[in-house]
TrEMBL record:
Gene Ontology terms: biological process: methylation
Gene3D superfamilies registered for this protein in UniProt: Vaccinia Virus protein VP39
InterPro entries: SAM-dependent_MTases_sf
Residues forming coiled coils: none
Any one GO MF annotation of this record: methyltransferase activity
Source organism phylogeny: Bacteria, Pseudomonadati, Pseudomonadota, Betaproteobacteria, Burkholderiales
Pfam families: Methyltransf_23 (PF13489)
Protein name, UniProt field: Methyltransferase family protein
UniProt keyword annotations, A-Z: Methyltransferase, Transferase
């Protein structure tokens, strides 16, 4: 952003709920505790750019943390519709919150998958689950591999999907899933996975005592469900999956 470019004003937001969740959606423990409020306009790119990318929304988004698995999430957007998310988060200004979303991340990820799976991709069709506008799939296809994309906010060009996939990629998606929808999201994901298939999932794992000021806790990015190693493992286990974390960002899931 240049000094002469004013950040775009946010449209009026739908109501933000202040109700207290009764239990943790990751591990099931009772009574997650309030962690604090973060303004809706805060984005991850505020941290990297060193300046606010949007004017203050003056709309506090309350986050809670589970005392057992330290899953950090907000229930403030529980009443939002998919159209609300599309209008107020996943809109034309989203690139201000996440500049690498459009090309840098999908290009980098396609190169990583092509290198890691290498010859196996010759006999495999990849499904990019929550793959945005399909850039990752197009990058893999340009390397001679087959890849389909499915995304609820970019569904107009979704191809006819196969019954099952041996490799499903899911980059920077799960942190966007409303906490109350996590089980349904996993059920849908696993409905596409072959019995011996692998899920490559990326999300930044928070430390158990991470402060609310952490850059990844960013409402304007749609980061509303932030995991720790314990919370992601608990959620995976409930759905019959083993979890192997390559690092704090990349994770492999397979059926037990």
């Amino acid at each position: 952003m240049t000094a002469h470019t004013a950040p775009p004003a946010l449209p009026a937001l739908p109501d933000l709920s202040d109700h207290a969740p009764s239990h943790c959606s990751a591990c099931g423990a009772a009574a997650p505790q309030p962690l604090g409020d973060r303004d809706f306009a805060y984005s991850c790119n505020d941290h990297f750019a060193g300046t606010a990318q949007f004017p203050p929304a003056n709309a506090p988004v309350r986050y809670h943390r589970c005392g057992s698995c330290q899953f950090t999430f907000t229930a403030a957007l529980d009443g939002w519709t998919p159209q609300d998310f599309q209008a107020h988060i996943y809109n034309a200004d989203y690139v201000r919150a996440d500049p690498v979303f459009a090309d840098v991340r999908p290009t980098r990820n396609s190169q990583m998958v092509a290198a890691l799976w290498n010859r196996a991709l010759q006999d495999t069709v990849v499904l990019d689950f929550g793959g945005g506008d399909g850039t990752f799939a197009r990058r893999l296809q340009a390397m001679g591999h087959r890849c389909h994309t499915v995304d609820p906010f970019h569904g107009e060009d979704t191809p006819e999907l196969l019954d099952h996939y041996d490799l499903i990629t899911c980059f920077e998606v799960i942190e966007h899933v409303p906490h109350g929808d996590l089980d349904a999201w996993f059920t849908t994901l696993l409905g596409h996975l072959s019995p011996q298939g692998t899920v490559l999932l990326s999300t930044e794992l928070l430390d158990a005592d991470m402060a609310l000021s952490n850059w990844y806790i960013a409402p304007r990015n749609g980061h509303i469900s932030l995991h720790t190693a314990a919370s992601l493992r608990a959620l995976a286990a409930r759905h019959g999956l083993s979890l192997f974390s390559i690092n704090h960002e990349m994770h492999l899931l397979r059926r037990v």
